[in-house]
Amino acid sequence: MHGGLRQAAERQGLWAALTLPGTIWLILLFLVPFYAIAAVAFGGFDPILLRSLPRWNPLDWQFGAANEVVDQIFGGSLQDVFLRTFVYVGLAMLLCFAIGYPVAYFLARHAGRWRGVLLVCLVLPFWVSYLMRMLAWVNLLNPDGGWASRALNTLHAPELFELLGLGDGSEVWFGQPVTVVLGLVYGYIPFFILPLYASLDRLDGRLLDAARDLGASGRSTFLRVTLPLSVPGILAAAVITALPMFGDYYTNTILSGSPRTEMIGNQIEAYTRTTEPQRGAVLVLILSGLLLVLMAYYLVLTMRATREAREARA
Amino acid sequence: MSRRQFVERSARMALLFGIGGQVAAACGGDDDDGGGGGGGGGGTIPLARLDAPITLPDNDADAIASGLEPETGTLRIFTYPDYLNPETLDAFATEYGIEIEESPYETEAQLLSGLQNPSFAYDVVVGATTLGLPRFVVGNLIQPLNHDYLANFDNVLPSLQDPYYDQGSKYSIPYTVYTTGVAYRRDVIDDSEFAGDDAWALLWDPARRGYVGIIDDARDGLTLGMYYRGVTDTNTEDQEIIDAAAADVRDLVSATSARIDILAYQTIPEGRAHINQAWSGDMLAAQFYLPEGTGTEVLGYWAPERTTVANDFFVVPSRSERPVLAHLFIDFLIDPANAQHNFEFVGYQPALTAPTADDLIAAELVPEHLVSALVSDAQVENGYRLDALAPDVQQRWEDAWQTVKAG
What we know:
Helix content of chain A is 74%, strand content 2%. Chain A contains 15 helices and two strands. Chain A has helices at residues 2-18, 20-41, 64-73, 77-109, 115-123, 130-140, 147-154, 157-163, 177-201, 205-213, 218-229, 231-247, 250-255, 264-273, 277-313, and strands spanning 44-46, 51-53. In chain A, helix 2 crosses helix 15, helix 3 (64-73) packs across helix 15 and helix 12 (231-247) runs antiparallel to helix 15 (277-313). The radius of gyration of chain A is 24 Å and the shape is globular. With 407 residues, chain B is α/β, with parallel strands linked by helices. Chain B contains 16 helices and ten strands. The longest helix of chain B is centred in the middle third of the chain and has 18 residues, at 239-256. Chain B is globular. Chain B starts with a helix and ends with a helix. Classes of the chains: A mainly alpha (314), B alpha/beta (407). Chains A and B meet through strand 1, helix 3, helix 4, helix 14 and helix 15 of A and helix 1, helix 2, helix 3, helix 5 and helix 9 of B.
């Protein structure tokens, strides 16, 4: 008995040791840089040499730059940037769900022998750099002969998006909110579909059979069984997709470049490129704080869903 | 700050960072930290103006002695991307039996940051401007030049041999010269629309919606708003003028959905922009970015008789490990033949007497319709300059520009 306990303790120690590389990785490549950003955000600034003067001791931190940025967010020039970012990411997430869920569902439940091929097709975009794919759209949407631009204009898409408040009716697609939203969807939707597919694929088919046996229609089975059971998958997909979208700046830079579509990531980039790294660092912290809230909400929902599933099984 | 403002700010900060206690304690010192623009440094920088030339002060670095042999090894050049002809670099490397390594920077702030980073020891900087020069000197980041190594110095434009921003060319040697104007597609907008001296207003034309671009730079961007109103004090400290210019540029963005970037040399030839605030050098370079089958006749450039004129220059970092070679490199590039060869790739006009504008046209390096993008010595003498500003004024320009960029 005593030897068994020791063996169990040794096993536990071994597993703990195996987490060491990951822990060191996290400390070196996440916590330390994150702390450095905080030291810059709450540090000083040399206006002559235009360089940050990080303050490593939290007791020395100053919040002048942070106050200015916060003031700009609440009623200042950054307010629209924040609202715009949330609207764009929200719309992009809705589209990801509308497009991605049926695809993931089909792959998981109905693709049959084509599943492998379709999964490869889904992963295929990752073989090409994100930047290259976006740059390809620059040519496709070029008002001077881009075929995607021509096709969209022939289909009266500008008028449609103007009605939806996502465009100004112009046949030039660069600089339009809809272009940025669709660019985000295009760039990130594989990240949405893959975890959702994994979740749907693990659904217990017997539960669906039971629902049908109990007289539920196909629609009812989907709405009352499949959809609720796929909520953790949807949340995981949403988190994985939304987090990079919030910090994205190159989609906007490449497909728009107009201040009318400026997002938080663009502001961070603009601050750090020029002479205001402190403000850029503050924005990074604020964005991280907001994403942390979203992440916490996701964890709470996931834990609740897991608990409910466990209770249902019991 | 009123108590009410203090409480509101603290609450917002606590909400955003989730570190209420620390914020509340730290905000008590808010008055001391000088906000985002202050908190460190102090001191001043010498501010040159066209009508108030300055001799930059001595710094801690010494100029190299005369008559030294050039070093061997690798010459490390800190430069804007694609701002040197690789063939010209090869020619220099062959002549001195060395290797050359280019490191790129994209903004003056990045240049300043790179020069301060002790991990890097660049030998020569290409593309510095009057905005950064006094900071480089005060920060001991560059060394005085020894003109004994610059046999071709007499080839520098006469108006820039003793420039107002660096009397005696103590620390800098001019590299290129350019104006700020308006680039346009001649197949879309007729030349006649640019007949007067007030064609800046064409950038505000809502009929060009989706096809307009402006330069992504606080100084150039806001100066556009000033020129639109006929204001020519391009180094103004007047907050009202700065704010009015920002408001005008915001109107431009709103009316035309303008792009803000520094890609006119691509967007105009590709047809993504029909009209763009641009540097003349970018338009001379734009001919290399035309799609196949499109002739250079579609490219047009307009600048009024008096407009923003700038010249980039070479400086030698104080930490340069090959300062002799750096001097010889500068001298190599201000040689007429080498400068013309370099121009063939770069497109920015050398700030030199030779090659002349006629030389460049005769060599078919400048298309007929882009002759307006060449800068004359008279333009250099009379142009409006974007000079270094006092730190607090610079911050106000940046803040105003941020309101434009935020949409």
